[in-house]
Amino acid sequence: MLGMLALAVHDLRMLMTTADVAAAMSVEGLLGTDAVFAADLHALRPQRGQAVSAANLRNLLSGSPIVASHKGPECTRVQDAYSLRCAPQVHGAARDTLAHAASVADAELASAVDNPVLTPDGRVESNGNFHGAPVAYVLDFLAIAVADVASMSERRTDRFLDQARNHGLPPFLAHEVGVDSGLMIAQYTAAGIVSELKRLAAPASVDSIPSSAMQEDHVSMGWAAARKLRRALDGLTRVLAIEVMTSARGLALRAPLEAGPATGAVARHVADSGAVPGPDRFLSPEIEALVESVRSGRIAALASESATLS
């Protein structure tokens, strides 16, 4: 259980940075504002993770010609949808959950969980330090955060495909409107994964099946929590990859306006992978290529070359 928690903490740190990158690309491509990410606004609610994500979004959107193009008085938008405007709040809460999980892992790595245990003064004592509740709880807690971050990501993807909400982009980002389906099926894929992630967020640690003739009458079920979290992390990776692919197509369709340095670097990588605007085609190879780019940390690394990210 501890090994799986350590792996999840490592992977989720990278995925949370990637989530900020994907959100920034969506804010930019959907003509959203970066004003809501101002440091003084987030200082009014001093949640640590929220401040980190807001700083990431500010840095990612810095220098964006697309953002600058609609900052004047001609822009009549009152405020962006929650999935854009509240990204630091949701991503930040997930970051704080991750920090708590990491603190549990740190304590566990410094623990003696043998039974019986040999004490420093030479005693051999029976004890209950082996019980997995601390680890099981945070494995379940992380699955909740993963599901919610993915849910918000999918909502941003969906906004790109809806002509009523994407501010001038073609329906479904289709090449030939009325003939091509664009990225409709990619959004279906993300929605299906998010639905599964919600089921995986149901806690395993509230279950307990006694064993060993009722001697082991309350167990943590942490291994089940660990296995479903690993599956959830794969789902989040795929949902973020689909958002990156969708937002990159949206940015390409904003031409001649250009994306900012950090988001533009990611968009160029997406284009190099073959996921470019055009007629309908089999999307699975393009999605899988970007899933690997997210999983390997490539997307976060590319953005980090032009923006300071945490």
The run of helices and strands is HHHHHHEEHHHHHH
CATH topology: Fumarase C, Chain A, domain 2
Strand content is under 5%
Query: Taking Cα atoms only, what radius of gyration do you get, to the nearest Å?
Result: 22 Å
**CATH architecture level-2 label:** Up-down Bundle
Q: What is the fourth-level CATH superfamily?
A: Fumarase/aspartase (Central domain)
Low-confidence stretches: none
Shape: elongated
Mean pLDDT: 95
Structural class: mainly alpha
Please report the first level of CATH classification, the CATH class: Mainly Alpha
Q: Helix tally?
A: 12
Number of separate strands: 2
N-end to C-end Cα span = 27 Å
Organism: Agromyces marinus
Protein name: Histidine ammonia-lyase
Keywords: Lyase
Pfam families: Lyase_aromatic (PF00221)
Explain what the structure shows.
Keywords: Lyase. It holds the Pfam family Lyase_aromatic. The protein is 60% helix and 1% strand. The mean pLDDT is 95. Helix 3 packs across helix 6, helix 7 runs antiparallel to helix 8 and helix 7 packs parallel to helix 9. The chain has a two-stranded antiparallel sheet with strand order 1-2. By secondary structure, the chain is mainly alpha-helical. The protein has a single domain, classed as Up-down Bundle (Fumarase C, Chain A, domain 2), CATH 1.20.200.
List keywords for this structure.
310 residues, Fumarase C, Chain A, domain 2, 12 helices, elongated
In brief, what are we looking at here?
By secondary structure, the chain is mainly α. The protein has helices spanning 2-29, 39-43, 48-61, 65-69, 82-85, 87-109, 133-161, 184-200, 222-252, 261-272, 284-295, 298-304; strands at residues 117-118, 124-125. Helix 1 packs parallel to helix 9.
